[in-house]
Amino acid sequence: MQTLTVALAQIAPRLGLFDENLERHHTLIAEARGRGAGLVVFPELGLTGYLLQDLAAEVAIRLDDPRLTALAAETKNLSAVVSFVEESADHRLFIAAALLEDGRVRHVHRKLFLPTYGLFDERRFFAAGDLLRATPSRLGIGLGLAVCEDFWHLTVPQLLALDGAQILINVSSSPGRDLAATNEVGLGTATSWRTLMRTYAQLTTSVVIFCNRVGVDESISFWGGSEVIAPSGQAIFSAPFFEEGLFTADVPLADLRRERLTLPLLRDERPELEVRELTRIVAERAGLAPDTTADDLAEAGLDVAPGDPIHPPIGFRDETAAGTAGPPRPPKSPARVPR
Hints:
8 helices; 24% helix; alpha/beta; 2 domains; single chain; 13 strands; 5-stranded mixed sheet; 6-stranded mixed sheet; Nitrilase/N-carbamoyl-D-aminoacid amidohydrolase
């Protein structure tokens, strides 16, 4: 396969309406197939909507849910990445992204980093995933899945690439924030994401696919702007802001080989160095080893040594400590020593 046609389903999911969103997925997968796409990508929680909160348990599905099985059945000779709320056997809820291929669920990624700052409150309702794996695919190259906030932690794209991914796929529900003419594209959120995508593509010499949703959940607006980035860091395709649609882009896979041979950054990575130093950092943070970056006199678990005790000025006695009143007396003159 010399060229991969990627379809980006930049949709506006209906909040809490699983079956309606599912039908939309069926329709767009068929449309993507008709356009010759080999891979179709949907945004984060495209099957449920994003701002679920207490609705999360109502729309959660198990991986053996017949509705997901039926959707997977639509992927004969096609790869699709879809996202939903997954309920585990022990009834934890995860924000999940699944790779569907050739009629089955091939791989599932559970969102690792759940933002709980600003307008985000995901940790109240969801559990965090604890596995990160690249996966082989019918496309003949490794894929790495991540969900939104995962890409704000640089270990995620690096580990996926080191594990064999050549295409990094981030599915997102990114709200539009920081409208300002001073930003590159007039939207601060978009500028930040575009910087991340280009940086990760270059540093991992991978194709990066970013699929973001549009529409509104409650009062939160999502900006779209889905992209496909070449391993050189150049944009192959950028979707419009705030516009719903199925957008396709052709990715020349030969660029992956050329870029990795020309710029062998992954070859020269030192994972054993990272493991060694991370092991040390974890031990130091847990108080299981001396903190090599702390002050010499710092107590265990603290980075900074206690402050120096306060001493009286040189040449004066501490009359208060001696229990006397009045101004301090001048020091006595030293006795003269006869010659």
